[in-house]
Specification:
mainly alpha, 64% helix, globular, 5 helices, 97 residues
């Protein structure tokens, strides 16, 4: 029974807050914005670079940076292209892939 409770709690948390946006969906959003110059980078290249940066934060056990990285992806997912272009989701503490 002890194992069931943490698993249930984790599942409940995921259902309540949803999953973090993937690097691919984040890159697709950025590529769809005419206001953001992405220099014609393919979505898959953008997503791969994003995933590498995410893994760097995980390997470093850089919990603050990893949380900020997640927050940035949520922001990009939720913000309008104009807001993103105006710096709405920018965090100078993060390396932007």
């Amino acid at each position: 029974m002890r194992v069931t409770i943490p698993i249930f709690s984790s599942c409940l948390t995921i259902l309540m807050f949803g999953c973090e946006p993937s690097c691919e969906s984040t890159c697709e959003k950025l590529m769809s914005c005419d206001e953001i110059a992405m220099d014609h980078i393919p979505v898959q290249e953008c997503a791969t670079t994003c995933e590498v940066q995410q893994q760097v934060y995980e390997k470093w056990s850089a919990s603050d940076e990893r949380e900020w990285f997640s927050d940035m992806k949520y922001c990009i997912d939720d913000a309008s292209c104009g807001d993103i272009s105006d710096g709405e989701c920018y965090n100078d503490e993060l390396y932007i892939w």
